[in-house]
Design goal:
Blueprint lengths: L5 E2 L17 E5 L2 H12 L6 E3 L3 H32 L3 H8 L23 H11 L5 H26 L28 H14 L1
Parallel strand pairs: 2-3
Antiparallel strand pairs: 1-2
Helix pairs in contact: 2-4, 2-5, 5-6
Length: 206
Amino acid sequence: MDFGVAYSPERIDPGSGYRIESIPKIVAGINQECTNIVARLYECVIEAGVVKVKDCKTAEAAKIFENIFRNVNIALVNEFALICEKMGIDVWSVIDAASTKPFGFMPFYPGPGVGGHCIPVDPYYMSYKAKKIGFIPRFIELSGEINEFMRIHAVNLAEYGLSRVGLGIRDSTIAVIGLAYKRDIEDVRESPAKKIIEEILKSGEM
């Protein structure tokens, strides 16, 4: 063989302040030689170190699992927020209190869904592959459904808030501030705000 193949999954968090060189880099090749070569290359620029894994499938599975983890936990806190809303409990205060536990807890925060080029998409790659081998990924798909619903819930909250002052969406001028899927970035891919705007426009036409 006169060429080599290696793979390293993307692992950035736009707007977070993390520098690429401060994030450990996962690498794998089609053989150990290729893995070692690409590891040496990345070691020249990645201060946080390089993590060699068994093969390219493992490297990609790690990337997908990282995003499934975030998607599932965002869905969990979104569902919990819906419950707290019905019970008259301030979910933000609950999260702040729970975050004081020094072990076994990692704070996630409710919102209108998920966006970007990874979290709304990657879990469904694994879901698709799981179904191809006869496994139904119920947890992954349920998380996606909950996060999708939050976009509709945001519109429902707007309708409820307007109704309290005797207005409807058709009677109101609504400003949607922030189109990107997270703060301090300009990326609108899969942004929940786009779906929210669409639903507001539909409601205004009724």
